[in-house]
Amino acid sequence: MQSHAKVVVVGGGCVGASILYGLTEHGCTDAVMLERTTLTSGSTWHAAGLLVTFVRSHNVSKMTMETIRIYTEVEEKMGSSVGLRKVGQLRVANTEKRWDEFQSYISIAEAAGVPCKLLTPEEITEVHPLLNQSPDIRGGILHTEDGYVNPADITMALAKLARDAGAKVYQNTEAQAYEKLDNGHWKVTTNQGEITCEHLIFATGNYARENARRVGLDLPCIPIVHQYWTTETVPLLKERRAEGLPEFPILRDEDYGAYLREDVGGIQFGPYEFTKDLKLFAEDRVPPEFGADLLPEDFDAVETQWERAIERVPTLGEVGIKANTRGPFQMTPDELPLAGPAPGHENLWLAEGMPGGILWGGTVGNRLAKWIVDGDPGMDMSELDPRRFSDYASKRWTMDKVRETWGTHMDAHVPGEDFPDARPMKTVGSYDLLTAQGAVWTSFNGYEFPRWFAKSPEEAIPEHSFRRTNHMERVQKEVRTTREEAGFIEMSPMTKFTVRGQGAAQWLDSIMANKLPKVGRMTLSLMLNDKGGMDAEYTIVRYADDDFYLISTPNWRAYNWDQLQRALPRDGSVVIEDISEQLGVIALAGPKAREILQPLTDNDLSNEAFPWLSAQMGEVGYAKGVHLLRVSYTGELGWELHHPVGYNRHLVDLLLKTGVKPFGLEALESMRLEKSYRAINREICKDLTPYEADLGRFVAMTEKIGGQVAERDFIGKAALQKQQADGGYNTLVTLKLPFCDTSVMFDEGVYADGKLIGRVTSGGFSFYCNHDIAMALVPQDMTAPGTKMQVLIHNEMREAEVIDTCAVDPTSTRARA
């Protein structure tokens, strides 16, 4: 074995082979793959190999389509089959909720580049005559590029092409220990000797947790046990093959919670285990004797699915069973991979937790390779970033959420839907007070967060639908009360850091696109990457020349922390502290906010003494050490009260006694849209620059120093200058649309004269204006107020009109009041 390589990949399954191939495709041939036994011997060899593109996410849809494209190219390069069959995939809707899900999905498909179409019940019968006719069938959706591939064949092909390009594959070579060297390289100790590398990638499948522990990582992924059966030859399928007819598409039907596909003349039956029946595997360590093994059949776990499947596809029960395949593969709490930089480690990359390594292998291999070679993955990978989970993701929490996620895999899902298992976990002191107020809770970064408020605790039942629900009346009341009087929201899960030290100001100035605020003031600033994309957003408060307080979104606490740590100067001149668990946050907003808060504090809240976007320390009620920040995400007059967390219950109790009512996340989201405030991972994301998001006002190319204008230098500046010079980029606008029972959400296609011109980044119903609002990326010549276009919502083209700035208070007069 060689002693050094630029990149070492640990793991020889489909994902590892895809990474090795991706590296060579991007010009890095000095790459090595280490496999503990032989290629494909883990989960790869017994995988079903399905290629599925049905997911309501713009970027994730593009990723799954990329895998199919890569495998197609690999087969062409090989000049021989890798078992790739684009037979299509047919999903059947038997309920209104499922049909709503399909109609919502079809609205994003073209914008994401996914070919698919909705089918009537009659068309379904033509496409898949084996399916029993049922009056329950509402319709279906057919993905024409979906299909399957032979897992072993595609893995071997990827490895061969990588080797042909100069990469090395070492089988029977087990990585046993890792050490970070003083020069920043990694040393990998194996049973065949040692090898050093600049970049180290983990793609270890079922060994993910135990392997990651060697470098101090506790990964939120657990192997689950899944199985499928293959029947004896079905005469009809045999006849069709003899006639040269194509395979039927893969069939999914929620009634039986499984997929069916042709398999060498028979039918492959792949049921999805319910939560109560799902078995986990090797929660801490894979048994040493376990290799390319299968586990014993467990028919009892899926008997219900089998019986229902026979009712819908009688042919399944007319032939015998030939084989059962049951084995483990990785699963994460949200059924998405852990792919990207490993938190807390330079040049260590993760390609773990793959809920279908064949499906994810192509795109993850390509994007990680590009990230390592070019310094950027070429698209926003945030939904797969391992740092989306922070330290709340314990092993037991992961186990329960994995069971829940897989057990509800076949359910119709509404975006933003909450799931109850492993909750509540973290709560603030006011949790009982807000629950008594009727709070319906959601979860952020492990913490409970109020979503909306029912009339009473007894009526606090979560509702999730693609259509208008009863609780929307409650949300509308929260919005109108806040806009017309006042309201407060408990927001303690927010991310909170302090940045101090003699080099703090200089360092922050070099990594933030906006200039720093003056002492006692605050500003919004964006942290960019080298391409000018927006990596993060912070509200920065300055208490002294070298004393800063940074606030960001709850769910990206681990990501934000890791990004700042990577950018930190090594001379000790800057010290960052994560105080997210130490401070709670309550936001009070509305035209009466001043008169409600003033009797509770000695701070002068007048406009003259406490202007908009300023910050003071003070006392509120009995609470000492409170950060009073005059800012509000609602766009109304308001203050955020960042307080020592022990005072949380006291402050909520204090506000409730004034008569002010709480509001939840859904009301806040509606008010955000009414103000066209940008949101993390929607308008503020790695794929967009501040200019594309129309946030140029938060970019400062220059600043005045001593009365002189000086150029600033910050990460991403050169890319922004180039973009300004080149022009021609799409820009974010705000659209007004009619409400028709189903609202715009996100990622829907935007059209003009029947042609796709852009996509929605986020949208929803305005409870104050009584119409839908969306923010969308469109060409610059379509941005003038009054410009007409259409948005595809729930498979229906709806007229939309560009409005100037935002729907409510465009001059921010209310916030400055």
UniProtKB/TrEMBL annotation:
- The Aminomethyltransferase C-terminal domain, residue ranges: 732-809
Please report the stretch or stretches of sequence annotated as the FAD dependent oxidoreductase central domain. 374-427
> Which GO molecular function annotation, any one, does this entry have?
oxidoreductase activity
| Domain GCVT N-terminal span(s) in chain numbering | 431-702
Keywords in UniProt for this one? Oxidoreductase
SUPFAM superfamilies attached here? Answer: Aminomethyltransferase beta-barrel domain, FAD-linked reductases, C-terminal domain, FAD/NAD(P)-binding domain, Folate-binding domain
Q: Which Gene3D superfamilies match?
A: Aminomethyltransferase beta-barrel domains, D-Amino Acid Oxidase, subunit A, domain 2, FAD/NAD(P)-binding domain, Probable tRNA modification gtpase trme, domain 1
The family database entries (InterPro entries) matched by this protein are listed as: FAD-dep_OxRdtase, FAD/NAD-bd_sf, FAO_M, GcvT/YgfZ/DmdA, GcvT/YgfZ_C, GcvT_C, GCVT_N, TrmE/GcvT-like
The keyword Lipoprotein appears for this protein:
no
Q: What is this protein called?
A: Dimethylglycine dehydrogenase
Organism of origin: Ruegeria conchae
Record lineage: Bacteria, Pseudomonadati, Pseudomonadota, Alphaproteobacteria, Rhodobacterales
